[in-house]
Amino acid sequence: MISTKYDICVQNTPLWIDSINIEKTNEWPIKIGTIYKNQNKKDQWSQYFVTQLKPNELFELVSENGNYHVRYSYKDLNSTSSGVEYLEWVDQGELENPFNQTILIKLKTIIESRF
Length: 115
Prior knowledge:
The chain has helices at residues 5-11, 13-16, 101-114, and strands at residues 20-25, 35-40, 45-54, 58-63, 68-76, 82-90. The chain contains three helices and six strands. Strands 1-2-3-4-5-6 form a six-stranded antiparallel beta sheet, covered by helices on one side.
């Protein structure tokens, strides 16, 4: 059952990120320290750790090597619309495949359809 907006990110990533085939966590419900893994279309796995979590407000992951960060912030705009702020960054180097607006609009649509 999806009870929070971050559940949509974790349980349904393949619905809104076309390059992801499989996702899983080492525990449910997730909490700070949970390990989050996803497999891309090339069968390569990535591993992240949940570093911040506030139900229906904030969800943040950091890559296994600590260089890549992604943060989702949610805000209800009214009874039928949500604002989604998405930030991704690296401490060193450049982002390899930053999300585009199409992916983020797809995520926002999924969130709004469930809340």
